[in-house]
Design brief:
Strand order of the largest sheet: 2-3-11-10
Protein name: Chaperone protein DnaJ
Cofactor: Zn(2+)
GO cellular component, one term: cytoplasm
CATH class of the largest domain: Mainly Alpha
Strand content: 15-25%
Bound molecules: zinc ion
InterPro entries: DnaJ (IPR012724), DnaJ_C (IPR002939), DnaJ_domain (IPR001623), HSP40/DnaJ_pept-bd (IPR008971), HSP_DnaJ_Cys-rich_dom (IPR001305), HSP_DnaJ_Cys-rich_dom_sf (IPR036410), J_dom_sf (IPR036869)
Family: Belongs to the DnaJ family.
CATH architecture of the largest domain: Orthogonal Bundle
Amino acid sequence: MSSKDWLEKDFYAVLGVNKSASTDEIKKAYRKLARDLHPDRNPDNKAAEEKFKATSEAYDVLSDDKKRKEYDEMRSLFGSGAFRRGAARSGNGTQFDPSDLFGGFSGAAGAGAGAGADRRFGGTGFSDIFSSIFSGGAGPGGAGAGPAAARRGPQRGRDVETEVTLDFVQAVRGTTLPLTLRTPGACDTCRGSGAKPGTTPRACPKCQGSGMISSNQGSFSFSEPCRDCQGSGSVVDEKCPECRGTGGVTKTRTINVRFPAGVADTQRIRLSGRGEPGDRGGTAGDLYVQVKVRPDELFGRSGDDLTLAVPISMAEAVLGTDLKVPTLDGPVTLRVPPGTPSGRKLRARGKGVVRKEGQAGDLIVTVDVQIPSDITGEARDALEKFAKLTPPPGRERLDARMRRAG
Ligand SMILES: [Zn+2]
Ligand SMILES: [Zn+2]
């Protein structure tokens, strides 16, 4: 069963229970219907057979807590008008192409901020469900209708999510970037009606302007969006040339977004009220910016500390040395004490992420002692002399174990 079916079918009505019915009530209702409608009892009764099937389908969803929850959420989301911004017949609403919802919606940015965008719906995972509805061939606007399309209260604008990629240094220091957001809005030429200026949409003759078609089959009643007007309740004879009758256009707006010093890869920044504007006096949605940080070829990051690996020679490790290393603010010199083992960490204080509040991370330098694999000539002679002069480290405990093992 496709998700599209879910939108069009009222499983509660099919089972004759109300929306708050308990699992037991649902089971009872189903059992009774299944008994009454069973093909054995209704031989050659096509209508009973259809109802029997519809009953099983409804029970299949409503008896499964998880499916029922998804179904309820989907119906309420759909019914709340979240997917339509007023019908054309409201005069000032917006019809829009559902494809705007899921694709072709991109935030772009200047100054090195690559961006792609999509929108999410509060983590409910419904975008998947809805994209399958929208791709289900219902035609443009086919998903638009719902019983609650008639709801006329203020509607909060949708949240918008966009993605921005920052350079490593931009993320460490913080930066402000202009983000260009494309969001669907009402066409100014026709004020969202989709009708050519000077003409007005007329009530859909099929559904008499209600946007819904109801049909009764015995004791069952079904409501579904009118297919002639895609549930908008109105039909347009002469299409608006600007939006080609959709009533919606893509609007571009640019906002400056400040990324604080130390913003991290995968961090999500919420900008309250910078999402889509609300409808009919509703508040605006929020803008979520998903941050990606491009790695640096040298530096790594660990929280507010920067990290850097520096190769040193065996002799430098043994004798000690002053090591000049780069930081984001120019080179610093670190003292490598004599007898430094490979892997030791040295710290350049305050050379990490500097927060606005004042605290700062460090640059942590890890020394990596290089062992020559090929040593010849005088260097080899010198090392052999060194080897003679320095006995190998004591391995008494290992020797003892080997003796014990026989
Ligand atoms: Zn228009
Ligand atoms: Zn209609």
